[in-house]
Design a protein that fits this description.
The chain is α+β, with helices and mostly antiparallel strands. It folds into 3 domains: about 120 residues, no CATH class; about 100 residues, no CATH class; about 80 residues, no CATH class. Helices cover about 20% and strands about 35% of the residues. The chain is built from 6 helices and 14 strands. Strands 1-2-3-11 form a 4-stranded parallel sheet, with helices on one face. A 4-stranded antiparallel sheet has the order 4-10-6-7, with no helix packed on it. It has a 3-stranded antiparallel sheet with strand order 5-9-8, with no helix packed on it. Strand 8 and strand 9 form a beta hairpin. Helix 1 packs parallel to helix 2. It is elongated and about 80 Å long. The two termini are about 25 Å apart. About 30% of the residues are buried.
């Protein structure tokens, strides 16, 4: 049983040695500390989750047992949980997290050219406006009018010979809407799946709604701890701390929604930006009876985690939410 007391995050941020680990644990015990969380942070010299690292963890557990302290593990380096110090996402672009970016653009019609958020365009629909209100029955699909433009231009001097070195380059593909629309008030709704390119310590974060990605994280982290220290679990090792893992969107959401609910989610994405239309959609589909309640679907695997995607939103929030829960 966990005893009341102080259990600090014990930061490992240098070149560890067994002597230093033992000294620090005995110092903590002498001051009445009940236990600690081993937290790998920037500055750690032992390669994270390597044999050298686990030898230090085993040493810490051994001294903790001698001094009566409780050990809590921490499943990331540094945080948020899910990437195993970056190992899950490095070389695995299919595990990269994505976001659902929602945008609206008001237009008076005519020729419309818009640079859209960089990513996979899931929905691009124009609706008429009457007295400032969207006429939801008037939607026109604009996806056929979206294509890629290389928007970053540059000049370089490279080439095969000294006589032909001047080069004009273009890069950074960006989806662009280019269309002629009726001249009347319109609102264009855009939904784009974008790659999470920076999240706290990481350039790419992991798609925690992807069971394969989560399985990779568990195998790299929790299973390794269990292989080395499984006999201590529930005894001198009390818990594993999971920190700030954050689900975004997932490319698996549309297909899973179709399979679970029987209709296509993508045409309904504009409704997530308008509370009145969202309420109407929910009422017509019978998905949930109240706007303040989350509508969810689950992609389940026997014995593993349940991944739940929120397809409706709480009134007043800005984006669709996605959450994960444990299988019961």
């Amino acid at each position: 049983m966990l005893r009341p007391g102080i259990y600090p995050f014990w930061v490992w941020n240098g070149d560890l040695s067994e002597d230093e680990i033992e000294w620090q644990i005995r110092e903590m015990a002498a001051q009445g500390i009940r236990g600690f969380f081993i937290h790998s942070r920037q500055g750690l010299k032992q390669p994270y989750l390597s044999d050298a690292f686990f030898r230090m963890v085993e040493s810490a557990v051994s001294v903790a047992e001698e001094t009566g302290l409780i050990v809590h593990l921490y499943d990331e380096y540094p945080y948020p949980s899910g990437v195993a110090g970056g190992e899950v996402t490095l070389g695995n672009p299919h595990f990269h997290a994505t976001r659902l970016v929602q945008r609206t653009f008001d237009s008076s019609g005519g020729h419309v050219r818009l640079d859209l958020p960089r990513g996979k365009v899931l929905n691009c629909t124009a609706y008429s406006l009457e007295n400032g209100q969207v006429v939801w029955e008037s939607g026109v699909d604009l996806l056929p009018h979206v294509g890629m433009v290389l928007t970053a231009e540059s000049y370089n001097e490279v080439g095969l010979t000294q006589y032909n070195r001047k080069r004009y380059f273009a890069s950074q593909p960006t989806p662009v809407l280019d269309v002629a629309l009726p001249k009347k008030p319109l609102r264009i709704f855009v939904s784009v799946q974008t790659v999470v390119e920076h999240h706290k310590y990481w350039w790419h974060f992991v798609d925690v709604l992807n069971p394969d990605a989560v399985r990779a994280f568990l195998d790299l982290t929790h299973e390794r701890y269990f292989q080395r220290l499984g006999s201590k679990f529930g005894k001198s090792i009390s818990s594993i701390f999971v920190d700030e893992t954050e689900p975004f969107w997932s490319e698996r959401v549309p297909a899973t929604f179709q399979a679970e609910c029987g209709y296509d989610l993508l045409p309904l994405l504009p409704a997530l930006q308008d509370d009145a239309q969202l309420a109407s959609c929910l009422a017509s589909t019978g998905l949930i009876p109240f706007l303040s309640t989350y509508a969810v679907f689950a992609s389940m695997r026997a014995g593993e985690q349940v991944f739940i995607c929120v397809v409706a939103r709480r009134q007043g929030s800005d984006v669709a939410k996605i959450v994960r829960v444990q299988n019961s």
